[in-house]
Amino acid sequence: MDSKSRKIAHIDMDCFYAAVEVRDNPLLHGQAVAIGGHRGHRGVLSTCNYEARKFGLHSAMPTAQAVQLCPQLVLVSPNMDKYRRESKHIFAILQRYTDKIQTIALDEAFLDLTHNDLHQNSATLTTQEIQQVILRERKLSASAGVAPNKFLAKVASDWRKPAGFFAINPSQVQEFVKALPVTKIPGVGKVLAQKLQRLNLHTCQDLQNFGRFPLIKEFGNMGQKLYDLAHGRDDSPVENERIAKSISVEETFEHDVWGTEQCLPHLEKLYEKLMGRWRQSSEYVWAKGLGGYTLFVKIKYSNFQQTTIEKKMHGIKLEHFVELFIERYGANPKAIRLLGMGIRLPEKHEHLQLNFL
Ligand code: TTP
Ligand code: MG
Fold first, then answer.
1. 353 found inside a domain
2. Whose CA is nearest to atom 20 of ligand 1?
3. Residue 51 CB less than 6 A away from ligand 1
4. Is residue 350 part of a domain?
5. Cβ burial, residue 142 (10 Å; 0-12/13-18/19+)
6. 332 CA distance to ligand 2 centroid (A)?
7. Domain CATH code at residue 287
8. In a domain, 237, yes or no
9. Quick one: 210 and 288 in the same domain?
10. How many domains, the chain?
11. Nearest to 290 by CA among 98, 84, 145, 99
């Protein structure tokens, strides 16, 4: 192995939402199932199982069209909480193998297995074991790919779907990319694909032959990227996303406020604002179902002296913030120029540990 060569795995659950529903409802076994709005309503499918795909159904297809193509289709309403819970279980399994994980979606993650001791450092065997464990413990099938970089690992996991595995070794990269259609390149959507087609560029080999500078001339930075990817080159690391350490809000008063009574309406207002931010944040998705939250209140006095009090609480309630405020302020009431409050967030993978380990 080239010493610089990495071993990246990409794992992607098969027809994720649909698979969860079919697993949990024996009546759905063997049926064509889609997740989406009800018959006759406007809307599109979130996904559908492989039985339904035989009829040409796919994600984002209008429900009405799907029902026309496959009249026996069973439509199930989405249950996002359930899929999120399932996702945490799956990611907790991945964590047993490495902490170098980049989650991409609820059902998808990259793993850097370059330095992994299991199976004599075989990323193939480790990844296949992960697939088996997911199947055994969660009764769900995943597809997986292993390659020297993220781009090719993702292509590989898609190569033998469903329940498939495909590995691209460093020595196979050059041969593999030649025939790879440009539509497999991340960032090549409909519009770019059409432009490439007009230039008679269909495969990565075509992009290679077209040349770097002509590509840059046509597509700017994207041209450079296309050129690199067409050669199977992608240096992007597997990044554990750092999520915000906290979500907080604060208010600096035009005139100092003094005493608990004056502060209460401000705390209420801040709380409303905080909850708005919290619900919109992606952290909300991850932290949902988490047993406790560390909440904090910040007080800045008119003399600019500042203090913060924080505590782990169950739930995120206004009274918790009021309690914290009174605990800190009650003994020492002074004029206040700023009040703030927030939620401290553990890192994403700590959430998983809190829940499962
Ligand atoms: P995908 O991994 O793209 O699709 P999938 O898991 O359903 O099927 P595949 O076997 O091809 O991987 O997306 C994961 C989930 O995200 C999917 O189950 C439902 C949801 N989703 C949508 O809600 N809308 C969409 O357009 C897509 C593509 C996915
Ligand atoms: Mg999937």
1. no
2. 46
3. no
4. no
5. buried
6. 56
7. 3.30.1490.100
8. no
9. no
10. 3
11. 84
* Residue 22 and residue 163 in one domain: yes
Domain boundary among 168, 183, 203: 168
Please say whether the beta carbons of 55 and 70 come within 8 A: yes
Q: For residue 84, what are the CA distances in angstroms to 16, 90, 282, 293, 346? A: 11, 10, 12, 18, 17
Whole-number Å distance, alpha carbon 161 to ligand 2 midpoint, is: 9
Q: How far is CA 20 from CA 15, 27, 140, in A?
A: 9, 13, 7
In tens digits, what is the pLDDT along the chain, a chain of 357 residues?
555 799 999 999 999 999 999 999 999 999 999 998 665 556 889 999 999 999 999 998 999 999 999 999 999 999 988 999 999 999 999 999 998 999 888 899 999 999 988 899 999 999 999 999 999 999 999 999 999 999 999 999 999 999 999 999 999 999 999 999 999 998 898 889 999 999 999 999 999 999 999 999 999 889 999 999 999 999 999 987 654 568 899 999 989 999 999 999 999 999 999 998 887 665 555 555 555 788 999 999 998 888 899 998 888 999 999 999 999 998 778 999 999 999 987 654 444 433 332
- 107, 155, 190: which to mutate for ligand 1, most atoms within 8 A of CB? 107
| Residue 218 amino acid letter | E
Give the range of the structural domain holding residue 222, as residue numbers without chain letter: 175-230
Ligand nearest the Cα atom of residue 60: 1
- Which residue's CA is the nearest one to ligand 1's atom 28? 59
End-of-domain residue from the set 190, 206, 230: 230
Q: Are residues 72 and 6 in the same domain?
A: yes
Query: What global pTM score does this model have?
Result: 0.71
Note whether 156 and 116 are same-domain residues.
yes
